[in-house]
């Protein structure tokens, strides 16, 4: 099982330093999400700060850039990093796409299929100047008279897909080089809800299980007092608990009522980053690794034999940056022992 890490920083320099330290501790991939920063620009800085770790978008929003822009940014980052880039894509939720980005959402599974198809076609054909003519409901692509004249590090870059719902999970197994879990996750959910769908997608494409990197995300909060660690992690649990789309995820953990309570607190006017108080300890324990260093190590290793990789990250929502920084330092120290 590979140990990978999602570095945090109030500045990109701090993020790059965390990536460098995580790599030295043994992290094999560093991942950058897309929300408060873009997923791609910071990776250019991390490429210069690291030497061996792969660099992944974990995840970039698939529908807010055109497939051609996604493909070009991926080629640039692969060149900067010397062939270490992974393009991780996710659909996001409809409101985020349409209200925040004025982007088309449509039928997300079909949309994602066409997006990945176009990106890979561009990588394969743009250097040779061959015409690209791909019909589609969501992302038709027609390119004539174009040839990219620059160095291309690799003809194909790994594409990982984030998925929670069954249809998108099957698609990840069918067309992805990897699958990435949501930031909140559990070994039970991976084994019972995700792996069967991935296996179905792999079977559709005639692929073997070894062709897919299954990446389980583990949100970590480490303190000698487990109660303190749980409260640090509770802010992120509350933040995502405010999203109605994740109802099936919480129901699968037997926590539909707890999810409803977080949603009610959000509807009553609480900010998404101020919902830690609405997330009880047992809800936190179900989907994070919060506790002493030994507690967190055990939680991480519970994915061994189920996941191929784990993506560790510190608590970020509803806590002061000094807490996130402390969690990050403790996680990097823990990586060196795994």
TrEMBL record:
Residues 10-303 form the Luciferase-like domain. InterPro entries: F420-G6PD/mer, Luciferase-like_dom, Luciferase-like_sf. The keyword Oxidoreductase applies. Keywords: Oxidoreductase. It comes from the Bacteria. This is LLM class flavin-dependent oxidoreductase. It holds the Pfam family Bac_luciferase.
């Amino acid at each position: 099982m590979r140990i990978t890490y999602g570095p945090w920083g109030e500045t990109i320099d701090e993020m790059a330093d965390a990536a460098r330290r995580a790599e030295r501790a043994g992290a094999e991939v560093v991942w950058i999400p897309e929300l408060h920063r873009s997923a791609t620009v910071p990776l250019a800085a991390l490429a210069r700060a690291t030497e061996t770790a792969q660099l992944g978008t974990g995840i970039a929003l698939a529908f807010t850039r055109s497939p051609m822009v996604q493909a070009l940014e991926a080629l640039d980052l692969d060149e900067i990093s010397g062939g270490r880039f992974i393009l991780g894509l996710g659909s996001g939720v409809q409101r985020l796409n349409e209200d925040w980005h004025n982007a088309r959402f449509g039928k997300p599974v079909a949309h994602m299929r066409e997006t990945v198809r176009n990106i890979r076609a561009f990588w394969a054909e743009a250097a040779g100047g061959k015409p690209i003519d791909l019909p589609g409901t969501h992302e038709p692509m027609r390119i004539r008279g174009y040839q990219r004249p620059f160095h291309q590090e690799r003809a194909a870059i790994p594409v990982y897909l984030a998925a929670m719902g069954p249809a998108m999970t099957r698609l990840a197994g069918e067309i992805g080089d990897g699958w990435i879990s949501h930031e909140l996750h559990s070994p039970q959910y991976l084994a019972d809800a995700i792996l069967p769908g991935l296996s179905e997608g792999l079977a559709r494409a005639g692929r073997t299980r070894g062709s897919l990197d299954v990446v389980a995300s583990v949100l970590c909060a480490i303190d000698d007092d487990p109660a303190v660690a749980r409260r640090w992690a509770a802010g992120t649990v509350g933040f995502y608990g405010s999203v109605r789309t994740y109802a099936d995820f919480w129901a699968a953990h037997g926590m539909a009522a707890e999810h409803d309570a977080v949603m009610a607190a959000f509807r009553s006017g609480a900010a998404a980053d101020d919902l830690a108080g609405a997330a009880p300890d047992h809800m936190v324990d179900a989907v994070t690794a919060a506790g002493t260093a030994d507690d967190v190590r055990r939680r991480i290793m519970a994915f061994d034999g189920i996941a191929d990789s784990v993506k560790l990250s510190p608590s970020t929502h509803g806590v002061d940056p000094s807490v996130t920084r402390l969690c990050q330092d403790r996680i990097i120290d823990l990586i060196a022992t795994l």
